[in-house]
Amino acid sequence: MTTILSVLLLIWLIPGTWILGRKTPDYYPLRQTISELGASGAEHEKVARFALFLPSGLLATLISFLFLLESHLEAAALAASVAIGYLFAAIFPVDQGAPLHGSRANFWHNLGGMVMYLGGGLSLIAAHQQAPGFTMAGVFSLVGLAGLSPYTPTRYRGWLQRLIEALFFAALISHSLF
User: Fold this and answer.
1) Could you tell me what percent of the chain has a pLDDT over 70?
2) Where are the transmembrane segments (predicted)?
3) Could you give the C-alpha distances from 1 to 28, 48, 71, in angstroms and in order?
4) pLDDT at 153 exceeding the cut of 70
């Protein structure tokens, strides 16, 4: 069941972010984060927050509980980290430009993102006994976390975020298969 739900989560997120990105003027997915689709005041803010982020967070929560029932603790922690990130993105919109500092909602949004990427990276490292490759993915995720900061001189924040999330989702599917 966790395999089906993890794949469903991907099937929901990938086209959803692609469609919203195409409909959002001046949105460049390699440069801008997924959260910016639901930024405060964005053209499709409500659709991104409540039709993309909220269902994704709820589905990741369900996946986490199912992994927990299977006593697959590292996978449960990874799914819970993803759930927190998406639920916080749904409840607390990021400010335009996804700054580090800003409104109260922006603070909570960034805190949820920090939990997602820090928790996800640590969960991957903790799962090294199931698959040694998870350690490298976890380390990459943690190093990549620094690249998600608006103060990091990179023009490819969106690309880096999508790469880290791809590692998380690949690990969820991998956990569910073994």
Assistant:
1) 98
2) 50-69, 76-94, 106-127, 134-153
3) 35, 26, 14
4) no
Q: Which tokens go with 116?
A: 């997602």
Structural domain including 18 reads: 2-177
Q: Model-level pTM?
A: 0.92
Question: What's the total number of domains in the chain?
Answer: 1
- pLDDT per residue as tens digits for the range 71-126: 999 999 999 999 999 999 999 999 987 777 889 999 999 999 999 999 999 999 99
Q: How far apart are CA 58 and CA 125, in angstroms?
A: 24
The Cα 59–Cα 87 span in angstroms is: 10
Closest by Cα among 127, 121, 37 to 81 = 121
